[in-house]
Amino acid sequence: MVKCIVIGAAGRMGIRIINAIHNTEGVKLVGAVESKGHSRIGFDAGELSGIGKIDIPIIDSFEEVGSDFDALIDFTIPESSLNSLDYVALKKKAAVIGTTGFSQQQTERIRKLAEGFPCVFAPNMSVGINLMFKIISQLAQVLQDDYDIEIIESHHRLKKDAPSGTAVKMAQILANTLKRDLDQVAVHQRKGLIGERSREEIGIQVIRAGDIVGEHTVLFAGPGERLEITHRAHSRDTFAQGAVKASQWVVRQQPGLYDMEDVLGLKQ
User: Fold this and answer.
1) β-strands 225-233, 214-222: how paired?
2) Are both 147 and 102 inside the same structural domain?
3) Of 3, 93, 155, 216, which is the active-site residue?
4) Domain residues for 99?
5) pLDDT for 239-261, tens place per residue?
């Protein structure tokens, strides 16, 4: 039995992760944590997530959970996730981090912390997206510089970071495959008389509207044709289920930083 605590338990993702844990054999929720002062502190985590009373209150302190857990799952904000990882490092447990929007310095800190415990760190934990990562790399290897590349991502109006961590990951994969420096070739907006598009550009365009869960398209446009690969998430359950799958996998690993391609065996 894998014992999990969920950070951000009253948030949109936290609620779905608690549901996924409840519906997954071999995984058990043992703690639900929220930020200090949150309006849901004290609520039963099961009742809040729609699975019924489970006698696990939402709390605002790691210390109340103690050491009786195997893996921590965190989909919150960078500062909160770093605090979570400090606690995991102290207790020598495992972690699954789905938070996006980290700075390069914060990412390096995660990498350093993960030398002491196993951690799955991924911007998107859906099976489909991680297969898409592999597919777009293969396409770029074949199409090379003859096809222009654009990434278009859409999310709900409340998402705080842009572009999405998934779009950034896609751009990194494509740039690495094509041996380009992403910092030099990424184009995040176009306006005015900008001149011709350079062949090396990787466009990353952002849409924020309504309650869109998450959509990502990679467009390869060449002479006389274009190829579009699209992933649409219909609910947050796909991310939650991936996170729970990652928690079952990561507790069996040696210390280090992993991603969902490791979890799904796509690097073999």
Assistant:
1) antiparallel
2) no
3) 155
4) 2-121+236-263
5) 999 999 999 999 999 999 999 99
